[in-house]
């Protein structure tokens, strides 16, 4: 069993220890079955399949079962091929661990080619070793946003990505802007010195 050394947050310089099981438990607690269900419905819709034949389509599969149906990488490879045909040219049968991990790797490479940043992708171990399904679900939602940005015409999930929209102003417009005094800077319009008293005159007496 391996352990993770963490620094105390209460000012104590002594590190404390957390086991892999405790770390995995914390990760599982952050797992969102609603996001999982959206991802599942999207995959089933695009591939026209049931990930788990006979399962209630409106009830989330849950962390472990959702992981199991994606773990060999075949579904993911078929899925990215719908978003961008030809992304994964050969999908391995799930005969060996190597083949399954290679499928996952091919899917992630295809995601990068599709424009998904590496920061938005899970790593192979997160899925194959079941260490972080939250990352897997987040990647699917990021892929949904990227699909919208890439003009995919089928169903998608996630909020549409903001598009780059640079504003180009002419030199004349920029010069005019330099002559305007912003209201936050105040104004001297109508200002005068009426009522200003710089101090009362001093009276000198014997």
What this model shows, in words?
With 206 residues, the protein is mostly helical. The chain is 44% helix and 4% strand. It is globular, with a radius of gyration of 30 Å.
Name the quaternary structure: single chain
Low-confidence stretches: 196-206
Question: Could you describe the largest sheet, including whether it forms a barrel?
Answer: 2 strands, antiparallel
Summed up, the helix count is 8
* Radius of gyration based on Cα positions: 30 Å
Shape: globular
Question: N-to-C terminal Cα separation, in Å?
Answer: 97 Å
Indicate the structural class.
mainly alpha
Number of strands: 2
Instruction: Tell me what portion of residues adopts beta-strand conformation.
Output: under 5%
Read across the widest sheet, the strand sequence of neighbours is: 1-2
Helix content: 40-55%
The H/E string reads EEHHHHHHHH
Overall mean confidence score, pLDDT? 82
Features:
mainly alpha, two-stranded antiparallel sheet, 44% helix, 8 helices, 2 strands, 206 residues
Short description:
This protein is mainly alpha-helical. The chain is built from eight helices and two strands; from the N terminus they run ββαααααααα. The longest helix is centred in the middle third of the chain and has 17 residues.
Please write out the topology.
Layout: E1 3-6, E2 16-19, H1 20-29, H2 33-47, H3 63-70, H4 74-83, H5 97-113, H6 124-128, H7 133-149, H8 171-178
Antiparallel strand pairs: 1-2
Helix pairs in contact: 2-7, 4-5
